[in-house]
Amino acid sequence: MKKTLIGWFAMLLIVITAPAHADRIDDLEKMIIELQKEVEELKQEREKAPPPQEEALDPYGQGYGLEEAIAKTEIGGYMELHYNDTVNGDNKEDDEVLDFHRFVLMFSHELADWIHFTSEVEIEHAFVEGGEESGEVELEQAYVDFLTGEHLNYRAGVMLTPMGIINQHHEPATFNGVERPFVDTVIIPTTWSESGAGIFGEIVPGLSYQLNIMGGLEAEEFSADKGLRDGRQKAFKTNVEDFAYVARLDYKGLPGLALGASYYIGDSAQDLALGADVQVDIVEADFRYDIRDFKFRGQIAQVGIGDAGKLNSFLGKTSGIDAIAKELLGWYLEGAYHFLPLINKKTDHDAAFFVRYEDYDTQKDMPTGFAENPAFDREAWTLGLTYWPIQNLALKFDYQDLRNEAGTAEDLLNLGIGWQF
């Protein structure tokens, strides 16, 4: 009897509480469905969001991570080690010199498909010490190109003055001779770079142009023996009381032939109180011609310095020993014969004999009342050998027969190695 009563009581509880249990089950099912929806939404948001690592590697929102940034960056450079011996010198301290002349690193980066950054930093003579005449650290290039089209592009920053062969192409494996030509040292002051902006592009196939506005030269630093060289401001707090304008045309429309011409104009007095502008004009033309195993190149440059007489008087330069000329003139011709193909047509190595003749005068025409110094009317014959075990490394040897109208020039024997990457 008791068991029967207990059974009926249990059935009665189930019947009474059944609706409550059903409601709770429905609530639980609704909660589970809502949680499933939230989980799906979180998954979708996570798929859309970049991984945390990529965000950390792209803090400035460039749109790419570390791996792609490395792919868009290029590192290059060139180095030169020179040995120079003054053959007929008088045993002075610097008659024999072993010099790690240049150590240059170049960095470039593609900021966008149409915006490219290029830079070049140079250490000269291996050792730099503040306040001493030793080496120097120099920012030779640091500019941005905006590549907007075939015919018109823009450039701004520290850039090379577009003048001459060597000033634009001075990597050691690209030219013969341990040292750069004298014309590219005292007539065109290579390496010559300055802050500025410009445009460049192609006029027609094979013919290109450059037009720049740049910081000008400083006439106060011109000299009788080095011409304009020490007047370069090198983008160091450039005094732009006077700007300069440079134009260049390059023609490469025929196989093996490259022609170039440049014109520079700019006042150089800057803030000197001499009552004159000291306008500098430079006209330059150059060529390169390769035919079979022979390579030829040449260059001519004429410099005009306005108000040279007033400048000399202002600076206290009274004689031909140190007086600045109103005209400088220099030119050279070079021929090279690449003879290894004659010996072994299958070799990857290359070697060439070359000869170069230069005529350069940093006092070609003097202002009225100032005499020229015959020591600055100079000639140079350079004969040598260049050997390339690979394209980007050159071993060099040359002998330089140096002459001037005063008969005081001293010959040089040079050995060198230069490489680039």
Topology:
Layout: H1 2-48, H2 52-57, H3 66-71, E1 73-86, E2 96-112, E3 115-124, E4 136-146, E5 153-160, H4 183-187, E6 193-204, E7 207-215, E8 243-251, E9 257-267, E10 279-291, E11 294-305, H5 308-315, E12 327-338, H6 340-343, E13 350-365, E14 377-390, E15 393-404, E16 412-420
Antiparallel strand pairs: 1-2, 1-16, 2-3, 3-4, 4-5, 5-6, 6-7, 7-8, 8-9, 9-10, 10-11, 11-12, 12-13, 13-14, 14-15, 15-16
Features:
disordered N terminus, 6 helices, Porin, 16-stranded antiparallel β-barrel, alpha+beta, 421 residues
Briefly, what is this?
This protein is of the alpha+beta class and 421 residues long.
How does this model look, in words?
This protein is an alpha+beta fold and 421 residues long. It contains 6 helices and 16 strands. The termini are far apart.
Instruction: Report the helical percentage.
Output: 10-25%
Number of domains: 2
Q: What share of residues are in beta strands?
A: 35-45%
- What's the end-to-end separation, in Å? 106 Å
Q: Mean of the pLDDT scores?
A: 89
Low-confidence segments, given as residue ranges, are 1-18
